[in-house]
Sequence to fold (397 residues):
Amino acid sequence: MRQAPEPAPDVDWDSHLRQALQQRAEAALYRHRRTLDSAQGVHIVVDGQPCLNFSSNDYLGLASHPEVVAAAVEAAGRYGLGSGASHLVCGHGREHDALEQELAAFTGRERALLFSTGYMANQGVIGALVGKGDQLLQDRLNHASLLDAGLLCGARMQRFGHNDTAQLGRRLAALPAAARTLIAVEGVYSMDGDCAPLAAMADLAREFGALLMVDDAHGFGVLGERGAGATEHWSLSQAQVPVLMGTLGKALGTFGAFVAGSDALIETLIQRSRSYIYTTALPPAVAAASRAALRLVAAEPWRRAQLQALQRRLRSGLERLPWPLLPSATPIQPVLVGSAEAALALSAGLQRQGIYVPAIRPPTVPAGGARLRITLSAAHSERDVDRLLAALAGLCP
Fold:
């Protein structure tokens, strides 16, 4: 007779999880959520404390703009709140369709496709374009959504040194001649604030027959004369950057993401992108709000000019303080502190003075690279920047 299997060991999962959480806390890596009691903006209320906010990605100050809010309210009254289904069932409305057309025109691409989040857009693009037998090259500092997509897609993934075009060229040259290859980079890197050398990367992609994908989540709305992002900043066409991803929840102040490119690319994503096919569409009110925000991006270039002036003022002040800086000319200005404990202490010192800049610690950044990630908004004033600089000066070691 077949013997009965030995009983499974009695595993105390809660005890195991609590131990792992305790280890994280002891390493100063425990994450805490904060609760906002206010609208998003440069002045917020965090856990009941009024704070000057230098942590948001609301770069142009549009998240609470009256025209953006009014567009959402009007569309909610007309279409209701939820979209009800995926785009391919019955969730694709007139506001979605209009926003896609406007995003395509604004970025100089044939078509655009909405996704519910930037994470889902990156997952959907990479999974639809490459798989088993294909090659995927990614910058070492790419966002987790790009790296996770690479792990899931089945392609052979290699990472090259951050913004290292020489190493990228060597990696491309070493690939099999017939390999189908996708290069994925960011236009502006979210933790370092620096820009990818997209023109050189586009040249390499063309030389080796690779497809270049740019995640421009932090450049769209901010870079370029019209705010069209990194591709406008570098004067790169659809042919040079065939796959362009942007988000709506940063400079536009709303929610969601899009991918822009050729008609063939967009049709391929509609047919093959699992994170597009199998998820509920954005609420139509969010699409309407995004259209209003896009109009403001185009009509009010002073917001980008204000960002640039504030960035120069902040950078000039930070250079007189003892912490290392990174070569960023964007609204993202990291102050490198080193240890997670030191970053937490500096963040807490600012919050005691009513200034909110959370510490960024591993694994979001490399070990030893804990920092304050200071982000600017066009809604900040020079006085706001000076207040932050004075507070940091008072906390110098």
In short: The chain has two domains: 34-63+301-394, 66-299. The mean pLDDT is 96. The longest helix spans residues 302-318.
